[in-house]
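User: For my dataset I need records formatted as: sequence, then structure tokens, nothing else. Please produce one.
Assistant:
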Amino acid sequence: MENALRHEFERIWEIAKENGIAAVTEGSNTDDNGDYRPGLIAVLELGVKSPLREAGLSKDEIRELSRRLGLPTWNKQSFACLSSRFVYGETISEEKLAMVDKAEQLLLDLGFHQVRVRIHGLLARIEIMPQEFDRLLAENVRKKIYTELKAFGFTYVTMDLIGYRTGSMNETLKLNR
């Protein structure tokens, strides 16, 4: 995954230089500091700036500042890079990125608020907020999600019993130690 992110940042740098732009920035914050974030290695090595982290701002502080400024996105659900949905070491392809993107968009279109569809091979592991479990498990919703995700290319569709949480793929790192 680090190589894919490095490639993306290198490409962004190329575009920036072609357009006379002297700096490239990204949006990590202090909440990302204690987590395994392979992209942050590329950020450091390539000289990409992290102004929110450098200012010492957490996700909650950024939301509060955004709310005070009247920005319409102050309470928008967080969206990390789609590559964060993949098991470490798994090949990331355009096809699988599209599968994850379509699956998450379906859940958002169905009214779920904070969603992740983690991909394990061709297995989809759905993470939603625990207070929305009952709605997902309603027969008509459950069947629609299953049918659509199968059509997107997933072989199996599962629901994470803990629910939505950032960095859940990092739990596999603890198992591999």
